[in-house]
Amino acid sequence: MNDQHAAAPGDFAEVEMRGIVRRFPGVLANDRVDLRVETGEIHAVMGENGAGKSTLMSILYGLQRPDAGRILLRGAEHSFGSPVQAIAAGLGMVHQGFKLFPSLTVTENVVYGDEPTRRGLVDRAAARARVAELVETHGLRVPPDARVADLPVGVQQRVEILKLLYRDARVLILDEPTAVLTPAEADRLLEVIRGLARSGRTVLLVTHKLGEVMAVADRVTVLRDGRVTARLATAETTPAEIALAMTGRRIDLDRTHPAGVPAADVLEVRGLTVSAGRGAKPLVEDVSLTVRAGEIVGVAGVAGNGQSELVEALAGLRPATEGRVLVAGRDVSGASVQRRRAAGLAYVPEDRATVGAARDASLADNLAMGFHRTAPLVTRGGFLRRSAIREHATRVIERFGVKAASPAVTIGTLSGGNQQKAILGREITHDAPLLLVEQPTRGVDIGSIENIHARLVEYRDAGHGVLLVSAELSEILALADRVLVMYEGRVVAELPRAEADPHRIGLAMAGGTIEATVDPDPGPDSDPAPTTAHLA
Amino acid sequence: MTAIKAGTAIEHAPGPARYAALRLRGAVLSPVTGSIVAALLLGAIILAGTGADPFTAYRAVFTGAFGSEGIGDTLGESIPIVGLALALAIPLRAGLVNLGGDGQLVLGGLAAVSVGLYSPFPSAITVVLALLAGMLAGGLWAALAAVLETRCGVPLLVSSLLLSYPAMSFVSYMVRFPLLQKGSGIPQTDRLPEGVKLPEFAAGSGAGTGVSVGIVLIGLAALVYFVVDHRTAAGYEVRMTGLGARFAGYAGVDRARLTLRLMFASGSLAGLVGAIAVLGFPYRLVDGSLTTPGHTWTGLLAALLAAASPLGTVAAGFFFGALTIGGFGMEQETAVPQQLTSVLQAVVIIFLAVRGGVFRKGGWLRRLGRGADPGPPATASPPDPETTAPAPARGDGGK
């Protein structure tokens, strides 16, 4: 797609990183990494967690210094001590967590730090005009006078992009930009990215989503364990080839698991409401659902639409204002966490670092949790049996393929994927009729994702019920026998597996018309277009 | 990290000798040791600056504390410090800070002296009853602080500290009015009846040392704490709560109940220290005598220094006790004011705080702060355009 903007004059690449090395204690985060990005190109940097892509981008953006290597922009060597210098050199970055002032308007956010002035005062009119002009040129469709807090996440992200354009960034680095977006918003973002490239800007897309890369990028640089394992042109490659370069082994990307055979109810929820305090809109509103043994029920939705609160209320970590919850036939409405677990509930929480595990405790201690009051981990006299705790940990570690030197290491030193396998292993080992699973593969490498999915299906097939909350639509589609969609605290759609397709779920996730209510110019594509494949 | 097959690595766990060597290595290289050494060095510089010879001074501290003259005093001084250090370590293990040690201490002393003075039973039984009364008084007062947190949402840090003041005032009033010794110019209660006292060991310098059966009681308390902490499910839950309060809650540990029990245990032990104090020389409660030496705060420092580990807390408490007594010895020998040892105490803590990264994310004071606050972590922080760096990639232990 970018034939019309060939390489920059003099055959200099827009961005060139040569032989970048960055060491952390015990880890070589970047090992002689070379990255070459041509002007006007959309270049994806891919890799699993810990592959070194964030480190590489931090080095490019001046957040970290490399131990060795050179950075050249259009042939000129640079050494950035801080992002300020990188910005001055024409780079710009949109981080995963936005850095916006929610109470200020779009214009104020965009010009902040570089306001146009007139006789020493901020020239608001000029600022607004400049922002409006940028919105117009790039087709960003952001209302310049709206308060950022009132804008949906997808639009806020475009405000971040506006900030970069306002500072005349020639190279835009986008870090996992679609992580927080609905499928429709993600599609629109990809459109914006294409537009930026057409206007001659260079986009560096850091992501682990193969579908996006195939849809929008021109070329891909793949990292694994700090080294470049592939440089590919998307026109000449396949998602499978990229995945191979990321993981070093063949991954079945399109695997959907056979449907389950549902039996008796293991979870019954009736009219559950979680209040957000007086006057505020409830976080969870009148939710009713059932999960049967032998099925996985997926809860889809854009993050922040009440899924976390729903699961926390079910697990007993958050009081429900109304409604009844039955776990394996026992009424546990208002019961303590302990009683719910005793009734037959296990739970893999979203926040594995602080809720699912005690980071600074050993793997063995983390895995003992919940088993520490029953034999064989305690003697009849009430004393812990250290050997039994170690054996228990070893069993979970082996069964779930957790890579750890020993059960004595602190769990915080393991990679995200291994932490998650350990937590999932612990909860599955409880053998509870109902398993609540929240974002089981967030921040987990592709190789582990496959493993974790297989475990969940195996658990289902062993006759347990699973309630799966995930922001990754692909995950819901791959695993769920039934899909519920949450929007603003309510279940707005329930689709059996056969009817659950990305388009219908995406529509429900967006509450039907969410963008149209805010966007000043809804335009023809306010209806979500069919989504691109969300593979990973 | 090399991808060793997990199982094999476990089978080849280090043998006991190697394990002990590793533990020793860990202890020598620990931040605690480093801080103590750094503090001693800084102390030496201060000493040299005042014109004193650091070596002579330190030798005087050492002989003052551990010489035949001093060891009895050191043990006597260490009883309350170690006792209070253990008392405060118990909740600290779960990330809860009991700042009300003083109040629990004096209530324990008051309860013990009241029972001692008015019990109709034989003296042996009276002593036991006095000890139990002291524990009960301290324990209940601490439990009240726990209830204020769990039921009324007053942070424990605040509730425990603020409950301390009325307790001290109440005890002061009781000693100065209802229980005041007739005809005495000193605000003190009557002397306990003959025989109502803890048996004392025949230490070198006689009765005045205060080395009584109290040391056995505190030792017993330390042992119980050690066993519970290391070997029981309850101790496991406490440790996990300290390492991750939200994790423990998620797994079903009832935080309110845990807080109540730990605070009761903590207060009981503080009360026991008070009871032991009045059941020893001068066998009465003198207003202010329990709190003036500041043992509660020294104990809290010791518990913090040892991160509330049972053995470490005892060692740290004893270290501070020895430092205080050694300071007196140094003052006599070298004319260096004994306040220098307080300086050393403070410097140890400061170095430890710096080493442990008190204000760093995940540093230990932060962790304690979080532990004391049952609410979810605050999420609303103002955005920081452009400048906020993402956390540097952590040394990922493996794939």
Automatic annotation (TrEMBL), chain A:
Region Disordered, residue ranges: 514-536
ABC transporter domain mapped to chain residues: 15-250, 267-513
Highest taxon, organism lineage: Bacteria
Alphabetical UniProt keywords: ATP-binding, Nucleotide-binding
Pfam families xrefs: ABC_tran
Classification via CDD domains: ABC_Carb_Monos_I, ABC_Carb_Monos_II
Keyword ATP-binding tagged: yes
Any one Gene Ontology molecular-function term assigned to this protein's record: ATP hydrolysis activity
InterPro entries: AAA+_ATPase, ABC_carbohydrate_import_ATPase, ABC_transporter-like_ATP-bd, ABC_transporter-like_CS, P-loop_NTPase
The name this protein goes by in its record: ABC transporter
Organism field: Embleya hyalina
From TrEMBL, chain B:
Top-rank taxon, per record: Bacteria
GO terms for cellular component: plasma membrane
Membrane topology of the entry: Multi-pass membrane protein
Pfam families (alphabetical): BPD_transp_2
Region of interest called Disordered, as start-end residue ranges on this chain: 370-399
UniProt protein name: ABC transporter permease
Assigned keywords, A-Z: Cell membrane, Membrane, Transmembrane, Transmembrane helix
Subcellular location: Cell membrane
Keyword Acetylation recorded: no
Positions with biased composition (Pro residues): 374-385
Matching InterPro entries: ABC_transp_permease
GO molecular function, one term: transmembrane transporter activity
PANTHER family: ABC TRANSPORTER, PERMEASE PROTEIN (PTHR47089), GUANOSINE ABC TRANSPORTER PERMEASE PROTEIN NUPP (PTHR47089:SF1)
Membrane-spanning intervals of the chain: 28-49, 127-147, 154-175, 201-228, 262-281, 301-328, 340-358
